[in-house]
Structures are given as structure tokens and as C-alpha cells.
Amino acid sequence: MNIFQLARANVRALEPYQSARRIGGKGSIWLNANEYPQPTFYMPRSGNLNRYPDCQPKGIINSYASYAGVQPNQVLACRGADEGIELMIRAFCEPGQDAILFCPPTYGMYRVSAETFGVECRTVPALDNWQLDLPEIYTRLNGVKLVYICSPNNPTGNIINLSDTRKLLEMTDGRTLLVADEAYIDFCPVASLASLLTDYPHLVILRTLSKAFALAGLRCGFVLANADVIELLLKVIAPYPLSLPVADIAEQALSAEGLRQTSQRIAEINSNRNFLISELAKCPCVCVVFPSVSNYLLVCFDPAYHVFQTLWDQGTILRDQSKQTGLSDCLRITIGTRLECQSLVVALKALTLSPTLP
After folding, report:
1. Would you say which domain of life the source belongs to (predicted)?
2. More confident residue, 5 or 308
């Protein structure tokens, strides 16, 4: 029996998302996955692991609603923002009939999740400044159920203009849901769209504890939306999306002390990002350091220096973005500790002595 032939045709043809851990590498400086560089110290407390957890733990829902400035009935807890992406497709898109739309260069899981369920992907490349091409989006909306935007955008690090987002919300009103991926919004909270939920019932926002909360390994995220959307998502979500240990640590992270620690981490990352921007400008191998409000930088390098492979071999692991639309010779660099940032700069400056691989 050929097991491969028993799989769905779209799954056989699917190109999977290559996460940082899936790509691998061997190194001592990991700047490729947009993680916080040091561990947090939350510990699971004792609990009755013989019992199933609540589907939507009230303590977490209430705490995150307070943090995000929304009502508890506008919050759904899930297994990372990635599950939120998938839940929206499962709840709203008919396979073989509906489509989603997104604007590359951007996060790759929108495509993978849609293709997994046999839902068409439409793309409208971002403009040269990585803002939305609104006229082109408008021409491609027929049959689209979900429009995904990412702000701050991964991997470019920019915020989508609020005026453009409002225009897109007006454009999609009554025909399409707009899903705003705010996985990195904690680094620039003033740019959140959460305050617009009341005015736009078709707005959906994705959040996570993976980035600023330094809990990437926890796999805990949230969908913020109006109650009708949350009710539909509750129909398709797994019966127990958060295990008891996950719920326990998430509740600690959302406590007053946890939020204080998160604020400290954000200030540290912002400081290290500014340091790295300044130092990268002094490296001969660097062509452009693009502005970012997040915990990573997109940098265009002179290809003659073979930066990605050389640093990979030396144990400094970055994320290659050169296959993304419009990002030739670009690498994404996660903001690490100050020592890691300094070590990276030293390695990059050393490349001026040997600009070609042996």
C-alpha cells in the first residue's frame, strides 16, 4: 500500500511552513525565531491533572480582556495565534469555494493553513514601503472570506498605517472579515486595533503570549473579536485547547507582577534594538537596516559577504528571508541580549576581512 497516495491531493502538494526549529542549525546564538532570549521563571502550581481543564478558563479570559481593553465575551484563548489563524479558516471558509487574501512579504502560516483545508490563497504584494495596495486588494475581494494583515508585519517590522486599515475595514464591511495579526503589538501597543472592535463587527484580532511575554514554548494565544465571531469559533475549537499547566502559567503571566515583568522585557528589547540598529549601520556588509517597532530587524546585506551561511557555520543562527516577495538578500535578526547583539556585530565586522567564502 502506498500511504502517500491515500493522503488528500492538496496535502501531498503542500509546501510546509519551515519554522526555525524545523530548519534547525547548531549554534550558541539563536536570533532566528523572534523569541525572548532568556527563560522566564514561571512554574506550574499543583493541580488536579486527573481532571480535564476548562475550555476557556475564566481567570485567563478576564485577565487578558482587561489587558487588551476589551470585554471578556470578546476573547477566545487558543494554542497560539497559529491556531487562531486556522480556526478562522475552519469556521468561515468553504473548501474549494472560498478564498483568503494576504499581502506578502508576510507570515507564512496564512498560506499553509488555507492550503491545508483546500481554501484558495490570493496575494496582493505590499507596496514598496510595505503598506497595503488598497486599490488592488479591492479588485480581488470577490469570493474572499478572510483578509489577513500583520501589524507589526513579520518579517518587515513595520506598522500598517491606521488610515489604510480603516479604509480596508470600510471596504470589507458586509462582505469579508478582516483578521489583524497583532502577535508583536505588545512592543507598540498604541498601534493596536482593539479599540475598533466596537465599530467594526467584522474585525478580528490575533494575539499571543509568545513574544513580549517570553512564553513561546507555552503555546498560548488569543482571538479578540465581537461575541458573534467568538461564538462561532467555540463551535470548531478543540474541547480543551489549553492544558492545566499552560493555563496556570498564562494566568501568572497576566497577573500584575507578570505584566510588570513583561514591561521590563519590552524596555530591554527596545533598548537592545536601538543599539543594534546603530551598530549595524557601521558594518560594511550591511546595505539597509529597515525600521522596526518589534523584537526583530530586517536587514539587507551585500550578497558578496555570504552573511547567512558564514554566521550559520560559526554558530550564530539568523533567519533567511531572501525567498520572500521583494526581500532578496534580506535576513531577519531577532533582538537578543546585549551580549548577543554585541557578538553579532563583532562577527559581521570580521566579515570585512574575508568577504568571500573559502
Report:
1. Bacteria
2. 308
C-alpha cell at 181: 495579526
Taking the C-alpha atoms of residue 306 and residue 322, their distance in angstroms, rounded to an integer, is 12
User: What's the rounded Cα separation, in Å, for the pair 238 and 234?
Assistant: 8
E strand or H helix at 349, and its extent? Answer: helix 338-350
Measure Cα distances from 145 to 138, 148, 332, 346 in Å. 13, 10, 31, 48
58-257 CATH choice from 3.40.190.10, 3.40.640.10, 2.60.40.10, 3.40.50.740: 3.40.640.10
| Portions of the chain given CATH number 3.90.1150.10 | 3-37+258-352
Distance of alpha carbon 195 from alpha carbon 23, whole angstroms:
38
What is residue 183's three-state secondary structure? coil
CATH topology of domain 3-37+258-352: Aspartate Aminotransferase, domain 1 (3.90.1150)
Dump pLDDT digits (tens) for 93-139.
999 999 999 999 999 999 999 999 999 999 999 999 999 999 999 99
The whole-number pLDDT of residue 20 equals 67
For the chain, residues classed under CATH 3.40.640.10 are 58-257
pLDDT in tens, 175-184: 999 999 999 9
